[in-house]
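User: Sequence recovery, please. Input:
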């Protein structure tokens, strides 16, 4: 029998007291970017690693403004969000050399937003054949790189 070890998830699955409030606003307000997995801060948005990534290099572009829709986002934040998505594409292609990328927004819980109250854009590298039996039949993802290693790579990418 094979075992998959995921020690980084232990704290999450055993944590009784979940943090209250918006996880993005809490991360943005902190000065500890490494602990909060923020790899870059711009004027109106920041780029943060997804704590539960689909693939290595899965980042999110998040506005500092706490809104849930594009129509409520300030114009300058919206424009910067797209510019940062382009920068994410560039850095992910250089760092991970993927075959393609997924870039998207899930607006509202019914559209798949895990955090529906604070708008965020996902940017993640993809490779041909990266959907394997683990994801399809076991509903499990296997990631070869831990989040601290991903943070090191992307935070020093030269934003």
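Assistant: Recovered sequence (159 residues):
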């Amino acid at each position: 029998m094979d075992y998959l070890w995921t020690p980084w998830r232990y704290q999450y699955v055993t944590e009784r007291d979940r943090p209250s409030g918006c996880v993005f606003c809490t991360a943005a307000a902190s000065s500890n970017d490494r602990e909060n997995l923020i790899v870059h801060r711009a004027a109106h948005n920041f780029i943060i690693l997804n704590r539960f990534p689909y693939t290595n290099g899965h980042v999110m572009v998040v506005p500092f403004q706490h809104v849930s829709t594009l129509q409520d986002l300030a114009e300058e934040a919206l424009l910067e969000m797209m510019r940062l998505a382009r920068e994410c594409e560039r850095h992910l292609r250089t760092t991970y050399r993927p075959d393609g990328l997924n870039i998207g927004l899930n607006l509202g819980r019914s559209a798949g937003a895990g955090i529906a109250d604070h708008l965020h854009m996902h940017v993640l590298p993809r490779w041909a054949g990266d959907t394997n039996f683990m994801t399809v039949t076991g509903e499990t993802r296997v990631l070869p790189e831990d989040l601290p290693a991903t943070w090191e790579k992307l935070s020093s990418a030269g934003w």
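The longest strand covers residues 100-105.
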